[in-house]
Model the fold of this input.
Amino acid sequence: MDKIKNWLSTLSFKTGLIVLGLCVVCYAVSFAQMLLPLSVKAKGIIWVVFFGLAKTAQYSALLILGKAGMDKVRQWIRRG
Done:
């Protein structure tokens, strides 16, 4: 596990932002599937898959960006 954490921390700030964007997209898909005319079972499967991907992307982005990167993102949000 430490090997993965170390590798993620070596990735660039831009990569962290891309992964954070993918996180948002996965969250949106995980809940937007409720509007599709699918069976309850299919909706449940889609929700589990995309919600899991969103959580994975979220924590990966946090490891990539680190504390300094998250502070930078917060400053951008406050300015905007």
The chain has one domain: 7-79. Residues 13 and 31 are 28 Å apart (CA to CA).
